Amino acid sequence: MTKNLTVLTVIALLVACSSDIEKTRDGSKPVASDKLLAVKQRAVSVPSGIFSGSSKDQYGERAWLVCLDPANRKGKLYLPPDVLDLSLSDLNEPIVLQSQKGYGDLVYVLELNLTERLLVGTISTQRQVANTSKQLLKAEVSLEPVAFQDGWSELLQAPSGVYSNLKYVEEGGDLLGTELVLIRRSGGAAVGLITRFEGGPDGPYLLLDTNLRGDFLRFVIRTIHGKEVYSGVLSSSRLELKDETNPSLKKESLKRRSFSTIFQPNCHPKSGEKLER
Fold first, then answer.
1. How would you classify the pairing of strands 161-164 and 252-257?
2. Backbone phi, then psi, for 141, in 5-degree steps?
3. In terms of domains, do 193 and 120 share one?
4. pTM of the model
5. Which of 146, 161, 184 is the last residue of a domain?
6. Could you give the number of structural domains in the chain?
């Protein structure tokens, strides 16, 4: 008799628990397992490394170069000719990165989700005045990891680097010239971006269809006016760059400086680290 009562009691408890679970799914409070599932879905392993990509808005395409250092909850955003510090607010998804104030008191905010190979999401600009912020532009952005064969040391060797002939004209307060970032990859490929300055910045634009063979470089950029083709000859200290689309323009001589002037080694992925959940 006692055994039968025990069995009936257990059955009653199971039915009651089952009823409570259904009630909580419909309303009052979340189920514990649902909480755990939600946390699992949000939490991501934020990858370290250098990422390049582009966004597109009403003003056309724009290239981006970002480094992530999740171990120290920070990063860097290359905003030619400057580099802005990024703070990583959370390790959950979406990954939110916010810059310090840049030119014109603009703050850049990236909200990114991790896919199998890419970081995809949005990048927005905000102007912060006093304790309020006003969003100015928001665009979808896609960033992919920049893989280099021999690690950080390869970035410090030519032809990888930052090539620039920028000069500040004090009389008019203008910045004039060209700045190009180049990262060599295996097989004659390269990743990079180029920005032209005539007072204000034109770009940056991603280097497309890059061909890097020996000391010869060729690439295409896509602007609101169409495609433009460039070619150049590299040395350990310079890039002699020619605009093939406008042959009447003179070659530009860009002086090389180390890639470490914009990003530091803590942006380099740890050995064996992959971009995945």
1. antiparallel
2. -135, 145
3. no
4. 0.76
5. 146
6. 2
Residues 231 and 236: their CA atoms lie apart, in Å, by 17
Do both 55 and 124 map to the same domain? yes
Predicted pLDDT of residue 179: 97
Measured between alpha carbons, how far is 51 from 131 in angstroms, rounded to an integer? 31
DSSP state of 237: S
The residue-averaged pLDDT of 235-254 equals 93
Check residue 58 and give its pLDDT.
81
- Co-location of 158 and 221 in the same domain: yes
Cβ contact 71:266 at 8 Å: yes
Question: What is the per-residue pLDDT for 157?
Answer: 84
Distance between CA atoms of 176 and 261, rounded to whole angstroms? 20
Domain that holds residue 61: 49-146
**Number of other residues whose CB lies within 10 A of the CB of residue 104:** 8
Write the single-letter amino acid at 226.
G
**Quick one: pLDDT at residue 171?**
80
- At CA 191, angle to CA 246 and CA 151, rounded to 5? 150
Helix residue ranges per DSSP H, the chain: 2-26, 32-42, 152-155
- The DSSP code for 257 is E
**Own/partner pairs for 56-59, CB < 8 Å, 24+ apart?**
56/139, 56/140, 57/137, 57/138, 57/139, 59/224
Same domain, residue pair 82 and 100: yes
The one-character DSSP state at 261 is G
Nearest residue to 162 (alpha-carbon basis) of 195, 205, 186 = 195
- CA 16 – CA 2 distance, rounded (Å): 21
Q: Which of 96, 122, 146 is the last residue of a domain?
A: 146
Q: Look at residues 103, 150, 145 and name the one whose alpha carbon lies nearest to residue 125.
A: 103
Q: Which residue has the tokens 């006016």?
A: 225
178 and 253 co-located in one domain: yes
* Residue that has been written with the tokens 């532009």 in this structure: 137
Residue 88's Cβ-side half-sphere holds a number of Cα atoms within 13 Å equal to: 22
